[in-house]
Amino acid sequence: MIYPGEVFAQTQEFDTNIRQLLPYYDEMLDAIVLCLPIKAKRILELGFGTGELTRKVLHHCPDAHVTAVDYSPRMVDFLQTKLDSQGEKERVKVVHLDFGAWANDEAHINFTGHFDAVISSLAIHHLSDRMKEKLLHKIARSLNPSGCFWNADPVLPEFPELADIYKQSRQKWAQQQNIDLDAVRSKVGKSETQGYSSQDQLITLDNQLQMLEKAGFSKTAVIWKYYNLAVFGGLH
Ligand SMILES: C[S@@+](CC[C@H](N)C(=O)[O-])C[C@H]1O[C@@H](n2cnc3c(N)ncnc32)[C@H](O)[C@@H]1O
Question: Which ligand 1 atom minimizes the distance to the CA of 51?
């Protein structure tokens, strides 16, 4: 049994499989990275997984130190080994924590001061809507006055008629790439609710932008979208 968000039964296959399950995975993460000020020094990443976004951030922001949070013991071990092999151990502080508990002030991230940026990909949609709101408030409170937050996540279709179109877009993309989607989906592991996360709890992009505004983000934007996948966020 794996935790919600780990996706694949075999952690070591995540990097290959996710690129076959999701269209334009790298492009999506690159969109987040491009929004980060090159001079950013302190970055918080929520739900680091196998550290693919972390790796891109370290490359884009040469002065940055990343505080990287995940609740899965498998992901924590995997990232630590990966960082060792890449010689990037010094620039990443790996924190084993449920970001829902952090949002609820039940767990603490050991950090002095505020972050220049908070980022996340494919993780926050596992929280309930109430917890998403709490997390956004906590993120807003943890940022510098000029800080930013960017998130990549699947979203609900804007209206029901789009659901089938979004599904077809995925099939068509897979066919063009010669990917057998059923074979990739068979590698997805079984998960049950763990801490504050459970199976996908999707909401529309509009709702997410409203939540950001309510949490105190003065400027919000959708910077990338491919059918039901979006990168969105804002400035404090
Ligand atoms: C689909 S993976 C994405 C990993 C990486 N961000 C990427 O884009 O490749 C989602 C990650 O979020 C983590 N996650 C989900 N809910 C979490 C929670 N409440 N607290 C901490 N980590 C969580 C999972 O363990 C998993 O590693």
Answer: 5
